[in-house]
Amino acid sequence: MARFNNYLIVLALVLPSITAKMSDIVEEPLSECGKHIGAHCGDEVMGRLKSGNETVISTSCCYKLLQTGYPCHTKLTLFILENNAELNWTEFFAKSDKIYHKCDVLTAPGNPEFLANCTESLGSDCGEEVYNKLILDKTISKHCCEKLVKTGEQCHAAMAKALIRIPEMRNVNALQLLKKNKKIFEHCLHVK
Ligand SMILES: *[C@@H]1O[C@H](CO)[C@@H](O)[C@H](O)[C@H]1NC(C)=O
Ligand SMILES: *[C@@H]1O[C@H](CO)[C@@H](O)[C@H](O)[C@H]1NC(C)=O
Ligand SMILES: *[C@@H]1O[C@H](CO)[C@@H](O)[C@H](O)[C@H]1NC(C)=O
């Protein structure tokens, strides 16, 4: 996997290289999709779909669903339909889309322009340091801590949320990562 040269991955969401990776995922077999969503969250999504329970699924499973991605979500939905003859395809697909959309909203990193401003303000060198601290437990310099604090906690949180959605991050535990991300900010607040 190519080195992440920044934590400004957000911008990469619109870049062709990531789009290419997305298309690999489209080709992913159903069994892989099942592994990504996992038994626990798979059951939760399925339970909501079948019961018509309109409440949103848990935050942790929403992240898992977004990490699994829309192409996989569609594949899993199709699989259920093919194996449950009594279901109405139109209604089931609409419900399935609604669940995905609700999770998308719940876990959204925020306004793209705000994110672009955040990443620009942090800069790519410090972006990489924050990324390495978050994912690889490396150290973060005083200089980058100061820059991160200046960028602000709202930016820091939004960038992590955006990071969670990229394909390379799909197997990380989103809530744990966000917690760790918060700790990094707190650590930087106390670096003098
Ligand atoms: C929907 O699911 C949630 C969580 O499992 C549960 O608390 C709630 O009572 C359910 N609502 C209905 C209408 O079944
Ligand atoms: C499926 O649901 C749609 C929308 O509620 C309805 O218009 C359609 O007649 C249903 N189809 C079948 C085969 O029941
Ligand atoms: C982003 O930065 C530009 C230029 O500094 C500013 O005009 C704009 O309002 C900012 N947008 C957001 C959403 O923060």
UniProtKB/TrEMBL annotation:
Chain ranges of the Prolamin-like domain: 32-104, 117-188
UniProt KW Signal keyword: yes
Keywords: Signal
InterPro entries: DD11 (IPR040220), Prolamin-like (IPR008502)
This protein's record includes keyword GTP-binding: no
Leader sequence segment: 1-20
UniProt xrefs under Pfam families: Prolamin_like
Domain of life: Eukaryota
Name the UniProt record assigns to this protein: Prolamin-like domain-containing protein
Organism classification: Eukaryota, Viridiplantae, Streptophyta, Embryophyta, Tracheophyta
